[in-house]
Amino acid sequence: MKAVAAALVVSGLAGIMAPAAVADVSTAKGKRICTEAAEAQNPGAKARVNSRDIRTTETTYLYQVRITDAEGNRSDATCTVVKESGEAKLTANQG
Q: Which of 28, 33, 76, 88 is least crowded, fewest Cβ atoms below 10 Å from its Cβ?
């Protein structure tokens, strides 16, 4: 398992919650929420959300996030944002 993904699991923060300031989140705001959540969880890391792979349900947005830590190790995660509340949950992708 890659270093960042391992850190997600080991730290117990695989389900980090990051509330947004207002409700009714747009896809662009959800992207920003996911980027901020991933970078806050991994100090020194850079997160990039794949803008071409945004999935939506009636209540959530799903984003694919690539996280590069300070040492250059990469890992992928899925970020789920609740449209109504702006809460984000990051889950490390296996594989």
A: 28
Handedness of CA 25, 17, 81, 2 (dihedral sign): positive
* DSSP string for 29-92: HHHHHHHHHHHHHSTT-EEEEEEEEEEE-SSEEEEEEEEE-TTS-EEEEEEEEETTT--EEEEE
Residue 85 belongs to a domain with what CATH number? Answer: 3.10.450
Residue-by-residue pLDDT tens, the chain, 95 positions: 455 555 554 444 444 444 444 458 999 999 999 999 999 998 899 999 998 999 999 999 999 999 999 999 999 999 999 999 999 999 999 86
* Residue 86, token pair as written in the block: 């702006």
The whole-model pTM stands at: 0.73
For residue 52, give its domain range. 3-92
State the total domains in the chain: 1
